[in-house]
Write a structure and sequence with these properties.
single chain, 242 residues, mainly alpha, 10 helices, 67% helix
């Protein structure tokens, strides 16, 4: 149970456990963190990225993508495509598993929380103002920034001798934290198809008390738009020669 696919599964599971977990802590009734707000949510997601990357590396995935958009960008830049579909599958399963763990962790709180929309928002993203072109554009910009800035961390001009071991996960976590604070308001900043689709599937199949539908009409946006953003971000890496 050690290797790239297991690492991607475990890393994405930890990412979603932290990320969906912090949303549950803030949103669900009678939780200790109820009403703590957006800064707490973005901080939890940023730290979840750091924890997820470390977990993925420790479990056998040196690249620690934990995000299909990052996997796609890495394939474009390296011209190695063999890992794309297997990694996507492992990341999707990891996102599903992480969401199940959040559901189990907050078991008594689903019953006492009356708002089904709030419960869905723990598992997946939703726009503040529903507009397909605007929502897609936000996700494209955010994901392109994630890829472009993230790959800049290891640019030769920034780190001629490479980053110190164990340093990159903190930078990626800070980047996701900053993106959540700056660009997360319109759509909830998915930037990661597995982070949205895996938990959305969990919401669909789990016996969550008082849940509504899983809003599949919106689901293509946090899946397709981040992949488009990944292509643009990878192109920026070439243009600026990171």
């Amino acid at each position: 149970m050690h290797g790239p696919l297991f690492g991607e599964f475990m890393g994405t599971m930890v990412l979603v456990l932290f990320g969906d977990g912090v949303v549950a802590n803030v949103v669900l009734r009678k939780s200790k963190g109820e009403g703590a707000g957006w800064i707490v949510i973005t901080t939890g997601w940023g730290l979840g990225v750091t924890a997820g990357i470390f977990t993925a590396i420790a479990c056998g995935s040196p690249g620690a993508h934990i995000n299909p958009a990052i996997t796609l960008a890495a394939a474009i830049l390296s011209h190695h495509w063999t890992n794309v579909i297997p990694f996507w599958g492992a990341q999707l399963l990891g996102g599903f598993a992480g969401a199940v763990l959040v559901w189990l962790s907050y078991m008594p709180h689903w019953v006492v929380t009356p708002d089904p929309t709030a419960k869905l928002g723990i598992f997946c993203t939703a726009p503040a103002i529903r507009s397909v072109p605007a929502n897609a554009l936000t996700e494209i910009i955010a994901t392109a920034t994630l890829v472009g800035v993230g790959f800049a961390f290891s640019a030769s001009a920034v780190a001629p001798n490479g980053l110190p071991p164990g340093f990159a996960p903190y930078l990626w976590g800070m980047l996701v934290w900053a993106l959540g604070l700056s660009l997360g308001g319109p759509t909830g900043y998915a930037m990661n198809p597995a982070r949205d689709l895996g938990p959305r599937l969990a919401h669909l199949v789990l016996p969550i008390a008082g849940k509504s539908n899983s809003d599949w009409a919106y689901a293509p946006i946090p899946i397709v738009a981040p992949l488009i953003g990944a292509v643009i971000g990878a192109a920026s890496v070439h243009i600026f020669r990171y």
